[in-house]
Amino acid sequence: MANIPKEEYIFKTTSACAGCSSSLCLRHILKAAGPDSVLVVPACCTSVIQGIYPNTAFNIPVYNVAFAAAAAVASGMSTALRAAGRKTNVICYAGDGGTVDIGIQALSGAFERGTDFLYICYDNEAYSNTGMQRSGGTPLGAATTTTPGGKTEGKKDLDLIVEAHDPPYMATACSAYPLDLYKKVQKALSIEGPKFIHILAPCPPGWRYPADKTVEMGKLAVRTGMWILYEREHGQLTISGPSKNAMRKPLPIEEYIGKQGRFKNIDPRSIAILRQQVEHHMARIAREAEGIC
Amino acid sequence: MSERLAISKPVKAACGKTGTWRTFRPVVDREQCNACGLCAMYCPDGCIDDEQNIDLEFCKGCGICANECPKKAIEMVREED
């Protein structure tokens, strides 16, 4: 922990819910990025927690933009900054709705253009800012306000979509492992070109668990294999420490879903499908890490 | 340009003093605490400093610090009114 800077770039405090893991992530992301950074934030929780106009808790420049525009705005911003000879880090900080659903065309476009920026998606698996409606990132069987009986479709695999653009760096992270996230952001910002980090961010009111279990929930996601931490640098995949240990002997997924109110009424068939998907995903990542596929 | 764009200025307490949200207050037991700093790392709002002093003006009382403390040195105590 000694190597994480003490400097805070968010003043006390934002209006994020108690136990918000996105705030926890953002704290460490900004520590890794440093003062010469600009955040591009589309509509998401982060655009409403900043403060009441004309005040903001964020002590770095933030550009709040429309839902579908984040990566496109970052593209223009990055090009303008580079043309002016500045090395400022351009970071998109978007939720899962603004990434996997509404913002995906802008994201795809920016990656295709090779924009020099970092896109971070903090994934709490629903549109929680507007009241926990289902998104493309919501997993199978999870109850939201628009799928009260549990979602009947699976989670969209955003990482495979991004991988198809062949970015120089992409990684997954989880709010329960801030050190791992810190290192990944630093590494991403040291590489030129479009970078992508996908963070699992447990959400106490949305996932319906007590606020003090935020970090525990993130750790359980990794230990059960529901979320795998890895990084892919120029196509070379490395599984991160916590997941390497977890994949040797993963906990049963019931340990993770049983603690969340959103999975209260999940049926055994959906649990079986989720388990199968987790096993399949772990096997695919393990194969790729060994260079087999 | 600032005349035409809505620009916010960074200040402390931009969302008010969020300590009023709290129903449970974290209390550190100095005898048990070994100053590992995990509570400060996991605090979503950065309300814990290097000496494990908790800023009660802003602490929202989420209880992550108490849940993650390996020494169980932080206790959540109900706020009196």
Give your account of this protein's structure.
The complex is a heterodimer of chains A (293) and B (81). Chain A is α/β, with parallel strands linked by helices. Chain A has helices spanning 21-33, 45-48, 70-83, 97-101, 104-113, 158-163, 178-190, 204-207, 214-223, 241-248, 254-257, 268-289, and strands at residues 37-41, 55-56, 62-64, 89-95, 117-123, 169-174, 194-200, 230-233, 236-239. In chain A, 39% of the residues lie in helices and 15% in strands. In chain A, helix 1 (21-33) packs across helix 7 and helix 3 packs parallel to helix 5 (104-113). The longest helix of chain A has 22 residues, at 268-289. Chain B is 12% helix and 15% strand. Chain B is elongated, with a radius of gyration of 16 Å. The chains are: A alpha/beta (293), B alpha+beta (81).
List the main descriptive attributes of the protein structure presented here.
heterodimer; A: 293 residues; alpha/beta; 12 helices; 9 strands; B: 81 residues; alpha+beta; Alpha-Beta Plaits; two-stranded antiparallel sheet
Number of helices of chain B: 2
Biggest beta sheet attributes of chain A = 8 strands, mixed
| CATH first level of chain B | Alpha Beta
SS element count, helices of chain A? 12
- In the CATH scheme, the class of chain A would be Alpha Beta
Low-confidence stretches of chain A: none
Secondary-structure element pattern of chain B, one letter each: EEHHE
Oligomer: heterodimer
